[in-house]
Design a protein that fits this description.
Blueprint (H helix, E strand, L loop, with lengths): L3 E7 L3 E8 L2 E9 L6 H14 L9 E6 L5 H12 L4 E2 L20 H14 L3 E6 L2 E7 L5 E8 L1 H11 L19 H28 L4 E5 L3 H5 L7 E2 L3 H13 L8
Parallel strand pairs: 1-4, 4-5, 6-9, 9-10
Antiparallel strand pairs: 1-2, 2-3, 6-7, 7-8
Helix pairs in contact: 1-2, 3-7
Length: 264
């Protein structure tokens, strides 16, 4: 019988969850990250999600969590114990990834970047550039041998949008919708144009510089909440893989605990 695995990717803005039955992803959800949520609130939300999808949370065999939000981890770990009767596997120092990390201090790398790199190399090989378009935009570079070489980090488009509203007297808060033209005819469309096409240019510029350093035309995969919106007009992104992090969590779970999972 295949393992029923719950995977959680905790980001600064969203928590993306998935349920795998063996190799098949049978359900996935995206929730807002709430640092103030209690153990019971987390547990009830997850139970309701399972119920809504016709799944029984009591059948979950194991849980793996990747997080870039340390304050929320005690709550999620206690939720796993109380509501699922499981001690979750947490992506962090000492976990087996199968990925040599050529970083000055490997402990500095966010868990999400490691998980993405594991999944990216497993699915697409190398050399590879992974662009994760979340609260922060991260660029991860993997060699043809599967080595994590490093990358780049910049503020995400949501941070820039909030900064325009908060740090200027007259610019409004806007919804981020792609305008039909780059030349905006009103303030809102001008802001949308500057943000969306400005970030597309930034992504393409950084990717081109990475490729020049690698001396290789590396394959480029985009993931994260803004991937679909920005990849369409990008000149460098080859593929959008919105569930890359969930795939990476499944792979890391198999390398660490499959066949030796915790007992309920």
């Amino acid at each position: 019988m295949s393992v029923l695995l719950l995977v959680l990717d905790v980001g600064n803005t969203n928590i993306v969850l998935g349920v795998y039955a063996g190799e098949q992803l049978i359900a996935h959800w995206r929730l807002s990250t709430n640092r103030n949520q209690t153990v019971d609130e987390c547990g009830i939300v997850l139970r309701n999600l399972f119920l809504h999808n016709g799944l029984d949370y009591r059948e979950v065999d194991d849980i793996i969590i990747s997080s870039v939000v340390p304050p929320i981890m005690p709550t999620l770990e206690e939720m796993a114990r109380q509501y699922f009767g499981l001690q979750p596997l947490v992506v962090g120092p000492g976990i087996k990834t199968g990925l040599p990390i050529l970083y000055d201090n490997p402990k500095e790398i966010g868990a999400d970047r490691v998980v993405n790199a594991v999944a990216g190399f497993e699915k697409y090989g190398g050399p590879l550039i992974i662009v994760d378009l979340g609260t922060a935009i991260t660029f991860c570079v993997i060699s043809d041998k599967g080595e994590y070489l490093g990358g780049a980090i910049t503020a995400g488009i949501g941070i820039a949008m909030d900064a325009l509203f908060q740090r200027t007297a007259k610019l409004p808060r806007i919804d981020l919708i792609k305008p039909k033209k780059v030349i905006g005819r009103n303030t809102v469309d001008s802001m949308r144009s500057g943000l969306i096409y400005g970030y597309i240019g930034q992504i393409d510029g950084i990717v081109k510089r990475i490729k020049a350093e690698l001396k290789s035309d590396a394959f480029v995969v985009a993931t994260g909440g803004m991937a679909d919106e920005l990849a369409e007009d990008s000149a460098t992104i080859n593929k959008v893989d919105p569930l890359l992090t969930l795939e990476g969590l499944k792979i890391i779970y198999k390398r660490n605990r499959e066949g030796n999972r915790s007992v309920k």
